[in-house]
Amino acid sequence: MIIVVMGVAGSGKSTIGTLLAQRLQWPFYDGDDFHPPANIDKLRQAIPLTDRDRHLWLQALRHLIDTQIAAQQSCVLACSALKASYREQLTPPHSPIEFVYLQGTFTQIQARLAQRTGHFMNPKLLASQFAILEQPPTGIMLDIADPPHQLVQQICTALNLP
Fold first, then answer.
1. Structural domains counted in the chain
2. At 95, is the pLDDT very low, low, confident or very high (cuts 50, 70, 90)?
């Protein structure tokens, strides 16, 4: 099973993904680590990424997913996956992928980003992320107001995992 923890920047994807992977003893991959340098430069400069910018990034993540599935290895991946088309690109046919959407309001996430340090994503880009966000019609939807360990428990319960 591949669990993709998705949402806008600052929603807690890396935190929840790391905690979930530790609990399940599965590998964790942060989608941010797969961005080409040009994307990171744009994000630092508060320039929103286009679909074209995201193409190679999504290809790299899909390759990771395909490799994990071929190896019959479960994993947790933190990835914004903001649009339905991005999620489609990440999902091989008949694949064991579960999307977990971390939902929060603009105000909640803006407050989180104001306190975050050391990340290349410029907080000024939050509005552009919400502008292109297409909430998934299915999958696990969680409120980021809940504590991280509670969110992990909710994911495990929803997916019938230990």
1. 1
2. confident
Q: How far apart are the C-alpha atoms of 83 and 132, rounded to whole Å?
A: 7
How far apart are alpha carbons 55 and 1 in whole angstroms?
24
Kindly indicate the confidence band of residue 114, based on its pLDDT and cuts at 50, 70 and 90. confident
- Provide the CATH number for the domain around residue 36: 3.40.50.300
pLDDT band at 92 (very low <50, low <70, confident <90, very high): very high
Residues 6+ apart with CB under 8 A from 159: 1, 3, 98, 140
- Going by the DSSP 8-state scheme, the letter that residue 72 receives in this structure is T
Instruction: Report helix, strand or coil for 61.
Output: helix
The widest CA-to-CA distance across the chain, in whole angstroms, is 42
- Phi and psi for 102 in degrees, rounded to 5? -90, 105
